[in-house]
Amino acid sequence: MANGPWLGDCNHRDMGRIVIQGCHVATCDAVGSEYASGYVVIEDGRIVATGAGSAPPVAEAGQSTTDAVDGSGCLLTPGLINTHHHLYQWATRGVSQDETLFGWLTTLYPIWAGIDESVVHASAAAGLGWLALTGTTTSSDHHYVFPARGGDLLEAEITAAQRIGLRFHPARGSMDLGESDGGLPPDSVVEDRDAVLLATQEAIDRYNDPSDDSHLRIVVGPCSPFSVTGELMREAAELARAKGVRLHTHLAETLDEEDYCREHFGCSPAEYAEQLGWLGDDVWMAHCVHLSDAAVERFAQTGTGVAHCPTSNGRLGAGIAPLNAMLNAGVPVGLGVDGAASNESGRMVDELHQALLLARLRDGPAALTARQALHTATVGGARCLGRDRELGSIEPGKLADLALWRVDGLAGDGIDDPVCTLVFGAPKLDRLFVGGRPIVEAGRLLTADEDELGQSARRAAGELRARAAARAR
Question: Which residues of the chain fall short of a pLDDT of 70?
């Protein structure tokens, strides 16, 4: 696969003009503009106009054909941005249902040791298809398990993202601290530090597209403080900054991690990350459930982002992240579904609801509004990924990544506020556009067969279980 722009039909110059109108438009711009009955005009994959009422008539002679979309009964928002996932975990949903994080990992690592290209591709395609059907236009992924005979796992998930049509920010993750050296993962799934750095550099050189309408950007992503050596963390940060790409890792997810860091490093996870050069506006961390007030302030001062994963944190009993404190301090915060083995639903739109509920459980009913939840899932996610100039809001000049939600019928009857229906209620996705390209229409995925995605993922899960059973004999 060659370096450069996203492969596939992503040149929108030949596309006609698209006008979506008659819908409630929540722009998520800096002032929170909304139009109760508004329009958005798309040309060449970008938003060229938005406002209240009907779209202005086409003035230019020879204008390409217009595709008119009736948005009556709908809410139009920016596409949702998923800032943390482990797509390969779709093949192990429902396993280790009642464990804490460390117990869950101990159970699953031996199973994940059997993943290969076919398992990863099938799992990633199913997970990304499901994300599209639940409003996502851009997704990150944190892949850090690379068994020796697994094949090219990064390419396997990249081709899956091409197939579904979402913008994709995969992190070439890594682990080099196995059980024999005091880490959590089994030695069979860790890599040599030099091999990790070489593979990561090759991934950046081969795949990363820095253009402003990019569909593919590579991230550097060592797994966590308890599965990666300090040397690899430092050198990975140096590599990312030399190559001009972003950094991502897990941090402060559980109290077990807090205890581990204090025992091994004599400081909190956030303090350890700072010592390693891992705070900065080119970094976003997953979870950050157990951040002190001082750590929240340091994240805000340095522009370090956070992927808040409320459903996964609840599933594993990890705790409730201080979302209200982070937002008030100015920390860039996005939402993430996390891996499908710790969030079997995997529905991106659900994270808005769970984020609101958990924030209010922690800090009271005024802790997070519906619009703040939407903002976090759109603009906040774009900030975490370094894409806020191109993505995250409905404004002229930005890429036409849009979600059109049905808020009429049983989903929203009796609710006057469409944004409330989206966050508090039960919206149905009607259409999804990525760069003006339709990915979902009438609630159906256009880019892949949903039944085939499910069947392939089911086969992959069965193969993975069979491999684990054979190794255990």
Answer: 1-15, 59-64
